[in-house]
Amino acid sequence: MLRQGSRLLSRSVTAASSKSATARAFSTELPSTIDSTFVESWKKVAPNMDPPQTPSSFMKPRPSTASSIPTKLTVNFVLPYASELSEKEVDMVIIPATTGQMGVLPGHVPTIAELKPGIMSVHEGTDIKKYFVSSGFAFLHANSVADIIAVEAVPLENIDAGQVQKGLAEFTQKLASATTDLEKAEAQIGVEVHSAMNAALSG
Amino acid sequence: MASNAAVPFWRAAGMTYITYSNICANLVRKCLKEPFKAESINREKVHFSLSKWADGKPQKPVLRSDAPEV
Prior knowledge:
The structure holds two protein chains of two kinds. By secondary structure, chain A is an alpha+beta fold. Helix content of chain A is 31%, strand content 29%. Chain B has three helices and four strands, in the order H-H-H-E-E-E-E. Chain A: Its main location: mitochondrion.
């Protein structure tokens, strides 16, 4: 795309000079006749005008990052129907990101992570609380605040192992017999979610 | 410029992230133990009334109660 750049530039310059009557000048080119009254009045007004503002100047200032790494991580864990954890100060959170289980400590580099079905564990001293998350996102900010959003998150005790096995068998069979791309994708999702629940219950 | 990053299999099959996420959530809900399962399915029910408009006037509304299904 850029290889043609120089050819296009040189082509437009020659076009402007040869057929200036039919070709319109670019707005960035200087006008052939300079209007002196305009220049005079512009010079009067210009020093008093502020330069145009950019969108970032209208944004609220970002929360400041502490100069030293805080000792605790502030976690906000929300579901569409409930706020599971709100501004809870914890030591560490392990989230099931698509790239693998990610441990988040205070002072973690700012990250946006997409979550896959898996276990999320919140570590507070010796207390570990585990949830099975269906999918969602985790936003880790520079000021050691972690916003984790999930569509469905349940404590592991609430999952029925028998139904997980049944579901796994059903979807593995559906995957083998699927024909269209969409059916295959749905069956694949079923297999992934059920295997993750299986691993969560047994691990 | 080549497409960056491998697309997930569901995106390649034409599914959007929201569809994928809802399917995952429904599957998890189906595998819950009894009181929680009934609660969650109850929570996710939607009821709505849909009316088409013709000539600036609403036609007879259609009432729908959809329980989510995978």
